[in-house]
Amino acid sequence: MSAISVKNIEKSYDKGAVKALKGINLEIEEGELFGLIGPDGAGKTSLFRILSTLILPDSGSATMMGLDVVKDLWKIRKIVGYMPGRFSLYQDLSIEENLNFFATVFNTTVKKNYHLIEDIYVQIEPFKKRRAGKLSGGMKQKLALCCALIHEPKILLLDEPTTGVDPVSRKEFWDMLGRLKAKGITVLVSTPYMDEASRCSRIALMQGGNVMEVESLSNIIGKNNMILYALRSKEMHRLLKDLREFSGSLSAFAFGDEHHVRLSRDEEAEELYAFLLHRAHEMVNIRKINPEIEDVFIQLMQEQHS
Amino acid sequence: MRNIKFMLRKEFRQVFRNKAILRMILAMPVIQLILIPLAADYEVKNINIAVVDNDVSAYSRRLTEKIKSSGIFKLSDYGQNYNAALKTVGQSKSDLILSIEPGFEKNLIRERSAKVHIAADAVNGIKAGLGAAYAQQIIADFNAEIVKELAAGTEQKFPVTVSSALRYNPYVNYYLFMVPGILVMLVTMVGSFLSALNIVAEKEIGTMEQINVSPLKKHEFILGKLIPFWVLGMLSITIGMSIAYLFYGILPAGSFLVIYSYAALYLLAVLGVGLLLSTFAENQQQATLFAFFILMVFILMSGLYTPVDSMPEWAQWISAFNPPRYFIKLIRAVYIKGSGFNDLGHEFLVTAAFALVFNILAIFSYNKRG
Fold it and tell me: Which of A64, A118, B162, B253 has the most CB atoms within 10 Å of its CB?
């Protein structure tokens, strides 16, 4: 049985003016650490809000551990832990009080499920008397994760838990998610950071309310192989314009301090180099690279548009 | 039940940590009850009067003296030119002009009647109206004196004399009238607006969502929110009545039991208003603006300052749907007349209906939006 099963879910806002989800299908197995990857506005949060029973889908159906998100909402609320994108615990209650409150609301105690949160809680325990509003961003996320875990959920929904968190805390956070996966909890996590995709057992690439691809990271990259070159020159801005004008380039875009250009054949690299020298570029540096998740994402996005 | 207990524990903990709420509950009654009755005093004193004396006779001077010595008026101008007096009104130096015609004394003696003219600056309507009324009274008094003097020796009959007695509040103690009314506004604010702001804050911070994904039921959440403010409302009326006694020496002529029983019911009604308000507002700013608007209606349509009976009929109808109107009527009746349960059945009944309607509307609206 799938832990999360989503069938043709559609959701629009403002009486149909904004289509957030355009018929999404997903099957997530028990014990998976599944990543929803996509830019802002891809529909990730809408999907989370439907799965956590906060809003109703316009059409389609979804089940969590076999329970329907519309009909069995009270049962689902007992087995799902949800951590929204924005920190939303009581700022005027301490770490301890927040945790105790959410434990009692779920009819359990911190003591009973301490084993689940122990590795996370020990990091914030020294500050347990401190009000949640006075915690740093990373500590807030740890507390929110503890509160989402305190009732021993079977499924954990984490909406952009690492957005706005520093790189060290981000790494720590993903380590924690890895340990939760090892405990058998199904984790669905969304992120706009493509580099976090490697931490997931499988990922779904989302864009504009659609799921473009569902695979493991290596499979996605393997399946969408491409001939890719990274380029630099003295005038980066003009370089990008010229790369796009080159007849053999399938796509060209800025990627950090380099430009990535996709070609249809390796032989074209020589022609490209000659073309750029002809356009009077200086210090041209060209090298072949292996595509990363972001290259695949951009390619899929372009395919979807054309 | 168990969940409500946890909600309540959390709510009270938060309320006692929220300095703003504590200040509101403790300081607001003190400041409002001490400041507002002193400032919003209706007794009009120090009315500036300009006398235009075109007669300059013994009688005209006597009338002027009588007005001056009344304790209500201050002579701001004395002269023979009406336009000059009018100018002082324009400069806000005078509120009232008393113009005495030439031949005032002559006419009084010969014809037993004479005319004077009163003009009032109506920019401040209350001052003008009361001033003119006071002046008329003094002139009527003067008239009676003169008539009596001139008719000395002969039998003079005054066909009708009006004597008035003020029941229940014989010394027209303004505070006895005003302080309980302000107390009502206070309880209304705590019950409806503080509770609305508190609920909207949960929406704004996002904790409402966390509650919504938990097994906590909506009615448990709502009760957990409303009970603390019911308690705070009862607390604030207690503080208010204590201040009324300590500062103004005002005690209800009737029983505290009537006031507390009614307040308990009334708070249910205004908590319903607060809950309804909270379902409309997305954030605390919106809630505050809504509250501000509603509070104005509550105050102006309640009979706190202007009697409901003197409103136009349509306004009286609106006021019939204004909960504070009933509490103000009731608390004044208990404080001043000592009314009991038997006399106030209507107020209890209407308020119970309000409590029912507002809460049902609120729950309906809450379900639709939540």
Answer: A64
